Amino acid sequence: MNSRSNSQRTFVKLLCALSSSTALLLNPAASSAPTTSSPTVPATPRSDGLASTASDAAITSKLKLKLAGNSALKQSDISVSTFNGVVTLYGVASNRAAKTLAEAEATRIEGVKGVDASALLIGK
């Protein structure tokens, strides 16, 4: 095999993957067909669509800025993710007050439907 043919195959595979991804983004209903899963493997959560994904990214960005700008949280190492409007806080809060403050900041962000801080540990 020559490198040109390998490059072409790689390009075609990439193009097919992008095409499939674009189709799912433009038509989220196509990915919401009923799925079957074994009892030991939970079903993978699905996004409510492109608008929800963009909103989730905005929520995450806004909250990260708020947390980074809050001097009471400087000693904490808090990460943020958002899925369908539900914020998940994880990492380590410096103390109980810092964890409570991070949760409160999250609930104040427009578009947040819920906050899960069960993976946010206390103490360093």
From TrEMBL:
Keyword vocabulary terms for this entry? Signal
Q: Does the keyword Cell inner membrane apply?
A: no
The residue ranges flagged as biased composition, category Low complexity, are 29-45
Q: Where does the signal peptide begin and end? A: 1-32
**According to its UniProt record, what is one Pfam family this protein matches?**
BON
What residue stretches are annotated with the BON domain?
55-124
Question: Entry's Gene3D superfamilies?
Answer: 3.30.1340.30
Q: Could you identify this protein by its name?
A: BON domain-containing protein
Q: Which organism is it from?
A: Uliginosibacterium sediminicola
